[in-house]
Amino acid sequence: GNSQMGATIVDALDTLYIMGLHDEFREGQEWIDKNLDFSVNSEVSVFEVNIRFIGGLLAAYYLSGQEVFKIKAVQLAGKLLPAFNTPTGIPWAMVNLKSGVGRNWGWASAGSSILAEFGTLHMEFVHLSYLTGDSVYYNKVMHIRKLLQKMDRPNGLYPNYLNPRTGRWGQHHTSVGGLGDSFYEYLLKAWLMSDKMDTEARKMYDDAIEAIEKHLIRKSNGGLTFIGEWKNGHLERKMGHLTCFAGGMFALGADGSRDDKAGHYLQLGAEIAHTCHESYDRTTLKLGPEAFKFDGGVEAVAVRQNEKYYILRPEVIETYWYMWRFTHDPKYRQWGWEATQAIDKYCRVSGGFSGVKDVYSSSPTYDDVQQSFFLAETLKYLYLLFSNDDLLPLDNWVFNTEAHPLPVLHLANTTLSGNPAYR
Ligand code: DMJ
């Protein structure tokens, strides 16, 4: 949006807490208490507000126990609810926080909503119902899930676009990167977050991943495993930086996988981590491009000028961290340290850190933006990579897609929908 909503302050809070920067944390809390106000006439992305603000506030609440964060998260969630007023219950991409009027992105296929956007609300909304005892949030996201579950999927793949008026798929494009990514992540994490009770989510994840492996994952001539994009029956041999998170996801989902293929998925995670490291290593700055190809002799290298930028994204480091937790192979720390040094050398500026426009140029220019996910994710995952495993153990915490840790809900002996917390 165009209003002063302090995204960086909110997104960075739990990183401050985890790093033990408690004075700065309290300063952030004070700002939130006094200034964070959602009654603004501003159109915002439902997805971005959910993952960065609601996720950030909930994590700050769980870590610190300070009520103000819970109160603000619930207030904000209330402002997002009008986005679900569509004929199908699939939310609009954007909503005006004041008027509640929603709409979709003009560029999205046939007026569609985006899979990675309406499919990345589940964790936060289940927690909101858990904390408030109000089932409204839970019902919204379960409705989305049920609707998706009933739909036919071309080749078992979920298209990135779904029209919220008609309930029909838009273009048959499938991606594990931008437009699709965190939908798959949230299926797995819904299961983990429910203390593995939500087996419906696990099944949907397993089915989706099987189709992805069959149709989208290939090995390049040089032996690099990559995840391509499906476009109307054709595989585009291109992988985005965003897609690199999937290495960590495969490793995280290994335990509990169908037919006990844990070893296979851990190996797949390792291969994706290796490919993404290569995409960094084959640049001048040792920072990865936005997208890289595996075509006509090109391997893990960006071809188009407008895909050569690095905007402080976390996905590759995120995968190093998960791989480190599951294997303790020192190479992941070494790769994380390479990235740390490169960020410090090429992205540090007087006012903070900036993205760079071309990772293949020895004299890069800055984009003059410090994305809020740099503090929320990139630095947090680096910090965790060099910390002990007992800092936020994965048995107890599940990270939302913006790296905000939410606790596992131990709802023993009940199904999610039957749990009294949601009535
Ligand atoms: C973050 O906001 C989240 O990780 C999201 O899921 C994808 N993109 C950015 C970081 O690159």
UniProtKB/TrEMBL annotation:
User: Disulfide bonds, which pairs?
Assistant: 244-276
Q: Which Pfam families match?
A: Glyco_hydro_47 (PF01532)
For this protein, what is the EC number? 3.2.1.-
Record key words, sorted: Calcium, Disulfide bond, Glycosidase, Hydrolase, Membrane, Metal-binding, Signal-anchor, Transmembrane
What GO CC terms are in its UniProt record?
Answer: endoplasmic reticulum; extracellular exosome; Golgi membrane
Record flagged with keyword Lyase:
no
Q: Which top class of enzyme applies to this chain?
A: hydrolase
**Catalytic activity annotation:** N(4)-(alpha-D-Man-(1->2)-alpha-D-Man-(1->2)-alpha-D-Man-(1->3)-[alpha-D-Man-(1->3)-[alpha-D-Man-(1->2)-alpha-D-Man-(1->6)]-alpha-D-Man-(1->6)]-beta-D-Man-(1->4)-beta-D-GlcNAc-(1->4)-beta-D-GlcNAc)-L-asparaginyl-[protein] (N-glucan mannose isomer 8A1,2,3B1,3) + 3 H2O = N(4)-(alpha-D-Man-(1->3)-[alpha-D-Man-(1->3)-[alpha-D-Man-(1->6)]-alpha-D-Man-(1->6)]-beta-D-Man-(1->4)-beta-D-GlcNAc-(1->4)-beta-D-GlcNAc)-L-asparaginyl-[protein] (N-glucan mannose isomer 5A1,2) + 3 beta-D-mannose; N(4)-(alpha-D-Man-(1->2)-alpha-D-Man-(1->2)-alpha-D-Man-(1->3)-[alpha-D-Man-(1->2)-alpha-D-Man-(1->3)-[alpha-D-Man-(1->2)-alpha-D-Man-(1->6)]-alpha-D-Man-(1->6)]-beta-D-Man-(1->4)-beta-D-GlcNAc-(1->4)-beta-D-GlcNAc)-L-asparaginyl-[protein] (N-glucan mannose isomer 9A1,2,3B1,2,3) + 4 H2O = N(4)-(alpha-D-Man-(1->3)-[alpha-D-Man-(1->3)-[alpha-D-Man-(1->6)]-alpha-D-Man-(1->6)]-beta-D-Man-(1->4)-beta-D-GlcNAc-(1->4)-beta-D-GlcNAc)-L-asparaginyl-[protein] (N-glucan mannose isomer 5A1,2) + 4 beta-D-mannose
Q: Which residues bind Ca(2+)?
A: 401
Q: In which pathway does it act?
A: Protein modification; protein glycosylation
Q: From which domain of life does this come?
A: Eukaryota
* Family per record: Belongs to the glycosyl hydrolase 47 family.
Q: What does this protein do?
A: Involved in the maturation of Asn-linked oligosaccharides. Progressively trim alpha-1,2-linked mannose residues from Man(9)GlcNAc(2) to produce Man(5)GlcNAc(2).
Q: What is this protein called?
A: alpha-1,2-Mannosidase
What lineage is on file? Eukaryota, Metazoa, Chordata, Craniata, Vertebrata
